[in-house]
């Protein structure tokens, strides 16, 4: 497990956007960032899940979050531009963004990959991340130290049989991260990616339905790396893919 000891208020005063904040790793990251003092912007497609996270944050005494209901499958460039502008109007700047939402599609032999599922996976995991990143860059550039974090996977730089479009999309994610990191080197913005490793969520359960979930790390277990990359302690880290476990 990635080890990082952090102070109780290490994210105080920061505004952090989390995509896929209604479930799994994104939900836990939202709760943890808020607990450490950040104001979180919860982006996801299922409003009642986002509302539950909102309620949990208020119940734990965190700063009031914002909710952005958005389906990455259908969202257009204009949605992301508007979102970036609204963030600047409401919060003045964006200190961090965790681009966490993605879809698995189907695990299937290469010869059987459906064109429609390929397109959906590329839309949600690649094109939406690209447009979203473009949309929030102006807000990130206004923060003194900003952190943009993509989410990769064990199949994000080494292809594996049957992981099809998902693996290809994670390669593209790592490339996007490296391009941004290189272009913004020596600026206020750093850009990195996390490989969470096997984690107990519904995505993992659909990839490995027969495995014993009790053997897996929970989203809470992997939070040290998620906190590290949002805290100022990682200000000098740029262009890396770090493993949460
Ligand atoms: P989950 O499926 O548990 O959560 C994914 C989240 O993304 C959900 O909140 C989901 O929303 C949201 N989401 C999916 N599609 C869209 C969409 N079209 N528009 C908006 N939101 C969407 O996955 P994990 O928490 O397991 O995964 C988080 C990240 O970690 C992913 O990028 C995944 O690839 C990566 N990862 C996970 C591993 C694991 O073992 N769990 C291992 C390696 C990488 P909703 O709740 O509405 O469905």
UniProtKB/TrEMBL annotation:
Belongs to the short-chain dehydrogenases/reductases (SDR) family. GO terms for molecular function: oxidoreductase activity. The keyword Membrane does not apply. PROSITE patterns: ADH_SHORT. InterPro entries: NAD(P)-bd_dom_sf, Sc_DH/Rdtase_CS, SDR_fam. Coiled coil: none annotated. Keywords: Oxidoreductase. PANTHER family: ALCOHOL DEHYDROGENASE. This is NAD(P)-dependent dehydrogenase, short-chain alcohol dehydrogenase family.
């Amino acid at each position: 497990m990635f080890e990082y000891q952090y102070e109780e208020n290490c994210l105080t005063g920061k505004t952090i956007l989390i995509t896929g904040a209604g479930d799994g790793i994104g939900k836990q990251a939202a709760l943890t960032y808020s607990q450490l003092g950040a104001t979180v912007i919860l982006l996801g497609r299922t409003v009642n899940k986002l509302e539950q996270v909102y309620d949990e944050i208020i119940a734990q005494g965190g700063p009031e979050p914002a909710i952005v209901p958005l389906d990455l499958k259908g969202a257009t460039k204009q949605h992301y531009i508007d979102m970036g502008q609204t963030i600047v109007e409401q919060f003045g700047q964006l200190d961090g963004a965790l681009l966490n939402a993605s879809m698995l599609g189907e695990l299937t032999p290469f010869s059987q990959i459906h064109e429609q599922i390929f397109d959906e996976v590329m839309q949600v995991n690649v094109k939406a991340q690209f447009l979203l990143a473009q949309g929030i860059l102006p807000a990130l550039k206004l923060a003194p130290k900003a952190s943009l974090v993509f989410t990769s996977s064990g199949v994000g730089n080494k292809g594996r049989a049957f992981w099809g479009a998902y693996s290809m999309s994670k390669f593209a994610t790592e490339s996007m991260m490296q391009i941004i990191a290189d272009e913004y080197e020596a600026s206020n913005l750093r850009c990195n990616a996390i490989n969470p490793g096997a984690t107990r969520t519904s995505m993992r359960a659909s990839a490995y339905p027969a495995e014993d979930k009790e053997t897996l790390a929970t989203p809470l277990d992997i939070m040290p790396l998620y906190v590290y990359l949002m805290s100022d302690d990682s200000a000098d880290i740029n262009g890396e893919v770090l493993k949460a476990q």
